[in-house]
Every structure is written in structure tokens, then in C-alpha cells.
Design a protein that fits this description.
- The complex is a heterodimer of chains A (about 150) and B (about 70).
- By secondary structure, chain A is α+β, with helices and mostly antiparallel strands.
- Chain A contains 4 helices and 10 strands, in the order E-H-E-E-E-E-H-E-E-E-H-E-E-H.
- In chain A, about 35% of the residues lie in helices and about 40% in strands.
- The relative contact order of chain A is 0.23.
- Chain B has one domain.
- In chain B, strand 2 and strand 3 form a beta hairpin.
- The chains are: A alpha+beta (about 150), B alpha+beta (about 70).
- At the A-B interface, helix 3 and strand 9 of A face loops of B.
Amino acid sequence: MYRSILIQVEDFSLDAALAELKMQSGLAGGLCFFTGAVRNSNLDEAVGGLYLEHYPGMTERQLDQIVDEAARRWTLHGAMVVHRIGHLKPGDNIVLVAVSASHRGEAFDACEMIMDYLKTNATFWKKESIPDGYRWVEARSSDEAKATAWDA
Amino acid sequence: MGRSEIEIVLEAPTTVGALKSMIKLPNGETLNAVSRTQSIMAAVDQEMVDDLAMVSVASEVAFFPPVTGG
């Protein structure tokens, strides 16, 4: 199974990711892509931008383990995760999860599980710029609930 | 928590929980006291652990708030 896990400052291209995944993972019938972008508001306040940090070494390994778990549950041809760090503006891409499988069901499910686990089980932190200054984003219990639902 | 890195010399292996009582923040509170009101996660040698996990004299230990990626 093809896999690619990247944590980077640079933006990524969906077209390039699609071409790479198709080339690397053989004739997969279903390819599912999720991209997260920076929102311009949070908790009723305008957000001017985000600063993202990670724990070098540990975060990459956690993403690798999350892909392992998806590959254990579904038969996948390939999986890609790209997560950006550093300063981002509203509208900028933050994260890409792309999965290829023989059929759409596996691709949809694996993509969603990887994304749900990534939100709660990978060491990334977000600081957002708001009109008064900045604040560290707090974890949401709804994200935790979505991730633990996969363990049921 | 206001600090990026500190070095603590341990004479013997201990637990993550015990280490939390040894670490004082700039305001004088121990990490253990803070963890009663705020959620603090821990990693030993880059693996997520709970308070009962062992810390050897050469471990890399990290304490951080709940994660917010994606």
C-alpha cells in the first residue's frame, strides 16, 4: 500500500495530490479527498489568521499510526496526509487526507476515520488571531466524540 | 505553560505524576496543581502516556494542552 505523510509550511495542490495518488496506488476505483481550510471566524469572533505548531518527530509518527489503523480496518490502495504548520490566513489550506481503495465505501470511511483521529490524536496546536490579540484554540468535545465513535 | 524546555536531574526513575509535582511554573504553582483545573496531556519519549507511566533518568518528557489539529 502506498502512503505519504507530510508536515510542511508550504501549501499543497489538490491536482498534484490526485495525480500522485492515482499513479502510486494502482487502479483504485474509489478516491476520497478531504481538505480543511482556515475559517474566518470561531466562537463568534473574527479570526484574522492561525499559527499552527506540532511536535516534530512525534506528530509524524502519530499520523503514521493513524494510517496503520485505517489500513487495518479497510483494504486500501493508498493514503496521503498533508498537514501544514506555521502562519496561515483565512481560506488557506490546512490539511489534506486522501485515500484510495477499490470501492467508494472503504475510501469514504477510511478518509473520515483518519481525519477524526487526526483531530484528537495528533500533536498539533492552533493559535488564532482575534481582534483583541490572540488565543490558543481549545479542544472540542464534539471532536473527541467523533473519534471515539470509531472505537465502538 | 510558559516554558519550552527545562532539564531536571533525576536520581532514580519516577512516574509522570510525581514529575508533575516537581515542576513549578513561573507563578509558583506546580504542574500537578494546575492539572486539577486544566487538562494537561503528557508524552514520554514521544509516546502519549498517563500519570502512572515511568520516567527514566534519560527520558524526554513533554506536557501540553489538548491537541487541536486539522
